[in-house]
Amino acid sequence: MSVHLVVICESAVSDQLYLQKLLEHYYDVTDRTDIKIDYLPLATKTKACSISKKANLMIKAAKKVYSISAVIMVLDYDYPNLNSEQALLNQKITGYCKAHGYHLVWMNPDIEQVLLGRKVRDSAKRSEAIAYFRSVSTDWNQVDIRLHHRICTKQKSSSNFLDILNAILK
Q: What is the pLDDT of residues 24-42, one digit of tens each?
């Protein structure tokens, strides 16, 4: 089985580094020739519903080579209880993913909170992501717990990342 993943994420630097580390740790993607991953960063979360043209072109080309092609949109949930605009945007993106057959991976409230277990200031996100990517001392037991939530809960530091990826890659 060969797999092509198009991973849409909010940041070309920080989120992509976190996702690369997760995919390497859980699925050993660096050494596998049967998995190809392309990243499509979004300029902002509000652009999530306009990325399908690029993603579909990548998938169309990959279907000739790979037995499985999937688009995964990884987004921060971003405190929708505190912001009604955020709640509406999350609903819109969820509908968009369903309509296009994309897998929606959510990070509640954001990827830093899920992986680091704490909030990171916007100005420090890039440097924190680089440090995390280079680190060999990640507490994977805690990360495991936070990455196995099938539904988006109000619990902080949670994600459905492993459930979605396990369905595709295992």
A: 999 999 889 999 999 999 8
Q: How far apart are CA 101 and CA 56, in angstroms?
A: 11
State whether residue 86 is helix, strand or coil: helix
Instruction: Give percent of the chain above pLDDT 70.
Output: 96
CA distances from 151 to 45, 50, 73, 106, 147 (A): 20, 25, 15, 9, 11
- Residue 46 CA to residue 9 CA, distance in Å, equals 12
CB 34 within 8 Å of CB 100: no
Regarding pTM above 0.90, the answer is no
Compute the distance between CA of residue 126 and CA of residue 86 in angstroms, rounded to an integer: 23
User: What is the C-alpha separation between 135 and 78, in angstroms, rounded?
Assistant: 26
State how far the alpha carbon of 160 is from the alpha carbons of 31, 106, 117, 126, in Å.
24, 6, 16, 23
Measured CA to CA, the distance from residue 22 to residue 135 in angstroms comes to: 12
